[in-house]
Design goal:
By secondary structure, the protein is an alpha/beta fold. Helix content is about 30%, strand content about 25%. Strands 2, 3, 6, 9, 10 and 11 form a six-stranded parallel β-sheet that branches. Helix 3 packs parallel to helix 4. It is globular and about 65 Å long. The two termini are about 15 Å apart.
Length: about 280
């Protein structure tokens, strides 16, 4: 009997992704660290606050936001997503302002980075049914919550994408080890999030440095941005299989991988792949 399973690029079963908020100066050090270890991250920015006036003080530490000229170059190779024009709690404002906070933020970032911005992280983690309706209307395809579950689940509801854990989780390295050592029959996703200024607040840059070194460079892990994961999963679900499962057609613009009787097989964009 034929067996066909969903797998990640190059036959991998695991994917690791990062998500960091607010576009603040500590991102410089964080991006340098991610680049050193060839990790992919999504950075969620507030376009209405990307200037000196958007800075704020937290526990006596001045948190400074970078200006637009700097962020244009800093995040190359990573994904930009929105975080609300001015970082308002979206459940505490009129629906008309929710539209403004999401749509204008999306427009501003698309003008700055010159590609469709399709992801988001909820400011303060707040959202409701009305917020979800707005996001669907303006073309936001996924959004990260702050509801950590410490597991490696794929997003069943991309607009309510719960991460694995925050980097301050005291069990972070245990969770990472469980991910590295796990022999997944299905697919596993480790989703880490936070704010880079927290490493200065807590004086613990070594936490993220240790994690990056430990989790990087593994042949069985796909290192991806948030939108790369969403695009891959959605494209995989568009694969067209023949009724007897002897061939499949890939109508998408990216290569997809299937496991056929425990053998990884690539199906290139536009290809009809014969399995016999």
């Amino acid at each position: 009997m034929i067996k066909i399973n969903k797998i990640f690029p190059k036959g991998r079963r695991k994917v690791f992704t990062l998500s960091y908020d607010d576009g603040i100066t500590q991102d410089r050090r964080l991006v340098e660290l991610f680049n050193k270890y060839n990790l992919k991250a999504t950075f969620n920015l507030n376009s209405g606050l990307q200037n000196e006036a958007g800075s704020f003080i937290l526990n006596d530490l001045l948190i400074k936001r970078m200006n637009k000229d700097e962020i244009r170059n800093l995040y190359k190779g990573h994904e930009i997503a929105i975080h609300g024009l001015t970082h308002l709690s979206l459940t505490d404002i009129p629906k008309e302002l929710v539209f403004e906070e999401i749509l204008q933020d999306k427009k501003n970032h698309e003008a700055l980075f010159n590609y469709p911005v399709r992801g988001m992280a909820y400011p303060y983690g707040t959202y409701n049914k009305e917020v979800l309706e707005v996001m669907k209307c303006v073309g936001v395809e996924y959004s990260r919550t702050v509801n950590n579950h410490e597991n490696f689940w794929l997003p069943s509801k991309p607009l309510e994408w719960d991460p694995t854990c925050h980097h301050s989780n005291p069990n972070l390295m245990k969770i990472a080890k469980r991910f590295i050592d796990g022999d997944f029959f299905g697919l596993g996703l480790f989703y880490l999030w936070g704010h880079s200024y927290e490493f200065d607040l807590d004086n613990n840059w070594k936490v993220i440095e240790e994690l990056c070194e430990y989790i990087s460079g593994k042949d069985d892990i796909w290192y991806a941005t948030n939108i790369e994961i969403i695009d891959y999963l959605e494209a995989w679900d568009r694969l067209k299989f023949s009724s007897n499962f002897t061939f499949a057609y890939n109508p998408s613009a990216i290569s997809l991988w299937v496991e056929l009787n425990e053998m990884p097989i690539e199906i290139k964009p536009g290809e009809i792949k014969n399995f016999e």
